[in-house]
Amino acid sequence: MDKAGVQTAFVAAGLSRLLKDIDYISRPSIRLFTTPVDESALAIGTSKLGGFPDLPSGVPWPECNGLPQSFIGQIHLADIGQVDTLLPHTGMLWFFYDARQQTFGENPTDKGCWHVFFMETLTGLQRTLPPAPLPAVSQFKACSIRFANEITLSQYPKLDIPNCEWTDEEQKKYETLLATFPSAEDHAAIHDRLLGNPDTLQDDMRLQCQLVSHGIIDDRDPRAAELAGGAMDWLLLLQIDSDENAGMRWGDEGMLYYWMKRDDLQRQRFDTTWLVLQSE
């Protein structure tokens, strides 16, 4: 659904007065549609979820507490087209996560139990088998990826809209709209995406990312109030659903979310990501 479609949906939901706020709460996203595939049929360097990473020679496989991490996927940025986003238009992103799935992003000590690698110039890529200690249960089936642009809506408009003045009735109508946006059928589908608004399963994650990444786990910490103002600088980089195509399941049908601050994304500092796992 494009912006015009979002406007039409707002009018149909009786939210014409809120059309002025759409730019605050709608964000473009790149949806990832996965299909199981024989990995041998995929060219080296192709975007994929699961399988084995195509790594440059000499890049070490990341570990978490002495155990190799699970390979989540790789995105060849040229595959997504010349989309007007903060993502680089060339190069590759690789994503890894704690093979034990015990990292939730709730503690400063979680740092290091996920990795995001970026390389702009792709030479010497080779399909890399996982280290022997990585359990088979922590390895995922290879899936090809089809990319599609879509608009996503915020689940927390009062956080995203400055001086939000929505009435309780408007908030309820908006929540009803979200329940079937962009379609009722889509809500039953897998939601893997780059950028956009996350499909949040619990609370908004931006304040959590801001505080925990600065070593704070209690919002009563005297430093929390000063840091809280930077929460809205965090953007969703990648969301990975419990994707049955790849044999991925996060907690109780949960999702992985890789977050970055806007400035870090613009500077291509992908080592600064923060990860959160949420589940039902």
Output the keywords:
alpha+beta; two-stranded antiparallel ribbon; 7 helices; 280 residues; Hypothetical protein YwqG fold
Please give the alpha-carbon distance between the first and last residues.
26 Å
Main sheet attributes: strand count, strand direction, barrel closure: 10 strands, antiparallel
- Output the strand order for the largest sheet: 8-7-6-2-10-1-11-12-13-14
Q: Please write the CATH class name.
A: Mainly Beta
> Structural class given helices, strands, pairing?
alpha+beta
Strand coverage percent: 25-35%
**Secondary structure tally: strands:** 14
What's the helix-strand series? HHEEEEEEEEEEHHEHHEEHE
Q: Over the alpha carbons, how many angstroms does the gyration radius reach? A: 19 Å
Helix content: 10-25%
* Count of structural domains: 1
CATH superfamily: YwqG-like
Output the number of helix runs: 7
In CATH, the topology is named Hypothetical protein YwqG fold
Segments where pLDDT lies below 50 for 5+ residues? Answer: none
Summed over residues and divided by their number, the pLDDT gives a mean of 95
Shape summary? globular
CATH architecture, please?
Answer: Roll
Plain-language structure description:
The chain is an alpha+beta fold. It has one domain (3-278): Hypothetical protein YwqG fold (Roll), CATH 2.30.320. It has 7 helices and 14 strands. The chain has helices at residues 3-12, 22-25, 157-160, 168-178, 206-212, 224-228, 262-266; strands at 26-36, 48-49, 54-56, 63-64, 67-68, 70-76, 92-97, 114-119, 125-127, 143-153, 192-194, 234-241, 255-261, 274-278. The chain has a 10-stranded antiparallel β-sheet with strand order 8-7-6-2-10-1-11-12-13-14. It is globular and about 55 Å long. 35% of the residues are buried. The model has no long low-confidence stretch (mean pLDDT 95).
